[in-house]
Design goal:
Strand 11, helix 1 and strand 12 form a beta-alpha-beta unit. The protein has a 6-stranded antiparallel sheet with strand order 1-10-9-4-3-2, with no helix packed on it. The chain has a 5-stranded parallel sheet with strand order 13-12-11-17-29. Strands 19-26-20-21-22 form a 5-stranded parallel sheet, with helices on one face. It is built from 10 helices and 36 strands. It has 520 residues and is α/β, with parallel strands linked by helices. Helix 1 crosses helix 8 and helix 9 runs antiparallel to helix 10. It folds into 4 domains: 96 residues, Rieske Iron-sulfur Protein; 176 residues, FAD/NAD(P)-binding domain (3-Layer(bba) Sandwich), CATH 3.50.50; 110 residues, FAD/NAD(P)-binding domain (3-Layer(bba) Sandwich); 68 residues, Enolase-like, domain 1 (2-Layer Sandwich). The protein binds flavin-adenine dinucleotide. Flavin-adenine dinucleotide (FAD) binds next to helix 1, helix 8 and strand 32.
């Protein structure tokens, strides 16, 4: 989405620039043949690739070079400098790569390199790979299967009437009316045809027999598989309150849910959002953008305090209040009526639209029915393989051994789900790739993005570097003396550096970066 027209800045690499102007590992922005290009040197090699991330159009010149990768500062997508390929979600498409020549002391970009990337097909692939769940992890998995050169049958099965969509957008620009619906599908029908991915929509899988390697669908159809990836995600929780099923009470997970809220918001004047979670607050922001009166009710005294701590939580509260949101914190709803939400303190908050954002429950029925090992999620090993050989799990359902914290974790982040889909796919083809990514997520409130890296659950102390209210900060979360996660506002490059340092297990660099002292 977005970002296709980039104003050309910097030197014309087609005319050549002195090699001495390139700093090792630092992207230099310029252009060639009317397109934005970055040059990056790694030792003797000079790489030239497109300057714009294919996810949301992030500026790669402000990103971080790690080995032979360039990483996007906005949502941490990574591209191969040699081939332009999207190595890490959330980007799915490659960036262009350009030919570079050295002429004397000049480096010249001579044209686009359009030779296809060589792929070695897997040596003993399964007969077919079936993916259950057409969401973030499922789509990333089928993309990775084809990118690995797998030529066998690929099936992606989803419950919803639409294919995979950009789910994070459902609570943000799309809900706010700032993004058209055409931006939402991750891929169009032609992609599935070209890549020979059989997309089975409105098809719920109800049973899995891991001995017979067979799935059963709700309508009685059955389907065999060679390898299987479970990516059934999570469903939002509906509080059991009187009135919770009334027609003006909405949940938000699917495109259909988002359409329902948008439709209701056309005539509604007053909304109550139940839950001051990320999704609840993003919904509040979007409904304010649409001009509704918005009240948020939630049990915590400070929104997001358990995840982000006091300072950032207070900042988020003030930000929403500045935009007209009224909070009812430390309070819970006891009933929903046609014209409002009744609270524990006896008030009635007027509402003709109610959205519940009170968390999700992972969809484990299939895994449970199949007898897979379960531990508050589908238990997987470092290769994302479940207790049944040849059956993998990815995304919101998977609990995996996180090598960075030494804990088994289950995490509900878009980028984690996609990256797990990619790893599960490669392992379904016989690779033995451990899932070692450091979890990353972002959240957006009006014009303020929050980027978060690491696993902060159970943090014991919070430290702030920079100015939270000035929207320029890194907030770090410490457990057992060690920084385990960092959230940042408009410190995107440092957030990337923190990710790289956490990946390397370089605790000293993490300490320095979290204090705003650079990577050292
Ligand atoms: P999903 O994307 O939910 O996909 C699972 C799919 O499986 C669904 O389509 C479901 O219908 C299907 N399915 C389930 N059971 C079956 C079955 N038995 N048979 C067939 N199909 C089945 N994360 C972030 O990091 N940043 C954000 O800003 C952000 N914003 C979000 C905004 C919203 C509104 C929502 C709802 C989530 C947001 N998230 C965000 C969380 C993120 O979207 C999820 O973590 C991610 O989608 C999980 O991917 P998944 O593939 O595990 O599940």
């Amino acid at each position: 989405m977005g970002g296709s027209s980039v104003e050309l800045k910097g030197p014309d690499f087609g005319a050549g620039i002195p090699r001495a102007e390139l700093k090792e590992g630092e992207p230099l922005l310029g252009h060639a043949q009317g397109e934005a290009v970055i040059l990056v040197t790694r030792g003797a090699q000079v790489f030239a690739v497109g300057a714009t991330c294919t996810h949301y159009g992030g500026p790669l010149a402000e990103g971080l070079v790690v080995g032979e990768q360039i990483r996007c500062p906005w949502h941490h997508a990574a591209f191969d400098l040699r081939t332009g390929e999207a190595l890490r979600a959330p980007a799915l498409n490659p960036i262009p790569r350009w030919k570079v020549e050295t002429r004397g002391d000049q480096v010249v970009v001579t044209g686009k390199d359009e030779t296809p990337v060589a792929r070695t097909p897997p040596s003993s692939p399964p007969e077919s790979v079936v993916v259950v769940g057409a969401g973030a992890a499922g789509q990333a998995a089928v993309e990775a299967l084809r990118r690995e050169g797998y030529a066998g049958k690929v099936v992606l099965i989803g419950r919803e009437p639409n294919g995979p969509v950009d789910r994070p957008n459902l609570s943000k620009d799309y809900l706010a009316g700032n993004a058209p619906e055409e931006w939402l599908p991750l891929r169009g029908a032609e992609w599935y045809a070209e890549n020979r991915v059989e997309l089975m929509l409105e098809s719920k899988v109800t049973a899995l027999d891991t001995q017979a390697k067979k799935l059963t669908l709700a309508d009685g159809r059955t389907l065999g598989y060679g390898a299987l990836i479970l990516a059934t995600g999570a469903d939002p929780v509906r509080l059991k309150l009187p009135g919770a099923e009334l027609p003006h009470v909405h949940l938000l997970r699917t495109l259909r849910d988002a359409r329902g809220i948008i439709e209701a918001a056309k005539t509604a004047k007053r909304a109550v959002v139940i839950g001051s979670s990320f999704i609840g607050l993003e919904v509040a922001a979007s409904l304010r953008t649409r001009g509704l009166e918005v009240r948020v009710i939630g049990p915590d005294a400070i929104p997001l305090q358990k995840v982000l701590g006091n300072a950032l939580g207070e900042f988020v509260r003030k930000l929403h209040e500045e935009h007209g949101v009224v909070f009812h914190l430390g309070n819970t709803p006891t009933a929903i009526e046609a014209d409002g939400v009744v609270t524990q303190t006896g008030e009635k908050l007027p509402a003709d639209l109610v959205v519940m954002g009170v968390g999700v429950r992972p969809n484990l029925e299939l895994a449970e029915q199949a007898g897979l090992a379960i531990d508050r999620g589908v238990k997987v090993n470092a290769y994302l393989e479940t207790s049944a050989p040849g059956v993998f799990a990815a995304g919101d359902i998977a609990r995996w051994p996180d090598p960075h914290t030494g804990q088994n974790v289950r995490i509900e982040h878009w980028v984690v789900a996609e990256r797990q889909g990619q790893t599960a796919a490669r392992n379904a083809l016989g690779k033995r790739e451990k899932f070692e990514a450091v979890p990353f997520f972002w959240s957006q409130h009006y014009d303020v993005p929050i980027n978060y890296i690491g696993v902060g659950a159970g943090w014991e102390a919070v430290e702030v570097s920079g100015d939270v209210n000035g929207r320029n900060c890194i907030v770090s979360y410490r457990a057992k003396g060690k920084i385990v996660a960092c959230a940042s506002i408009y410190r995107d490059r440092e957030n990337l550096e923190l990710e790289a340092a956490m990946e390397r297990g370089d605790g000293e660099a993490v300490e320095r970066l979290a204090k705003g002292q650079g990577a050292g």
